[in-house]
Amino acid sequence: MAAEIISGTDISKQVRAEVAEEVALLKSQHQLVPGLAVVLVGDDPASAVYVRNKGRACDEAGIFSETFNLSADTPEDDVVELVKKLNADPKFHGILVQLPLPKQIDEKTVLYAIDPDKDVDGLHPFNLGRLVGGDPVFVPCTPAGVQEMLMRTGHDPSGKHVVVCGRSNIVGKPVAMLLLQKMTGANATVSICHTGTADLGAITRQADILIAAAGRAEFITADMVKEGAVVIDVGINRVEDASKKSGYRLTGDVDFGPVSEVASAITPVPGGVGPMTIAMLLKNTLASAQRSASTNA
Ligand code: NAD
Whose CA is nearest to atom 1 of ligand 1? Predict the structure, then answer.
């Protein structure tokens, strides 16, 4: 039987509408407008699209956003200086540095310069540490989006075996850490697979919830999925497609058609985890502004 499609487009609309309501409340009760600063270094076309989409989403939710464009050859020190300036600017409650950064810039140096209280991407070691400790402040946006999708579609991970394919610091590790916590929306048994995993299929076939975040186009095939599993596809891959004007199409890490015959529920690409990531960025920015309103009250 074909799987239920978990639409990130639909769920993210609900989340964004809820954020917009809260933003309006914050404005009327505290005369405070949440603000997000986005730092974009270089001219990577995919990053430019992501940044534009984030800006639009902020506008729609009533969040003030400003993008700081720096040229591809900007020295690391200049990026860090900008981040420090933004840390000190009270109109910004969130700072996001769009990744990847050009080669001459060490990602960690820049991310670690962000004030943890404004780290709406949740990638500063303080926030990753708080997540591991079971007391999160800002949860990284993509993992938070995955959890939100599961909960809003009745697929509570509690007691389930979640298998994560991928161990990056922005998706694989934090989503695993999030879902294993003893808290609502989590409490799962979690396995993490990666390039060193022997016999990947033997592990993925045990998954009640399978999260694919390896960045390998359609590498999760139907034979790697247990009948009735819930499949969350984080991957966004460009594959050549001569039938498209652009010459490529976007595809996930999951072989969608055959896997949706085996799974009970599945996220599409595009229209799955991607829109949720943006929605959770708005939610984190709102939460930061709300915290600032309550400390200054
Ligand atoms: P990454 O390249 O940093 O990490 C990929 C991870 O997958 C690595 O830890 C690696 O060990 C593992 N891996 C690679 N090949 C594997 C294999 N054959 N078997 C098992 N594990 C394997 O990537 P990332 O930043 O974590 O992103 C992963 C994917 O998710 C990419 O396609 C990226 O574009 C996408 N992504 C999507 C969103 C979104 O909002 N939907 C957000 C972030 C990343």
Answer: 168
Whether residues 172 and 242 fall in one domain:
yes
Q: What is the CATH number of the domain that holds 242?
A: 3.40.50.720
Largest Cα separation within the chain, whole Å, is 58
* Catalytically annotated residues: 54, 98, 121
Q: Using a 6 Å cutoff on CB, does residue 276 contact ligand 1?
A: no
Band (295; pLDDT cuts 50, 70, 90):
confident
Looking at the CA of residue 272, tell me the nearest atom of ligand 1: 41
The parent domain of residue 207 ranges over 141-273
pTM: 0.97
Please report the atom of ligand 1 found closest to the CA of residue 172: 26
Model confidence pLDDT, tens digit, residues 56-66 = 999 999 999 99
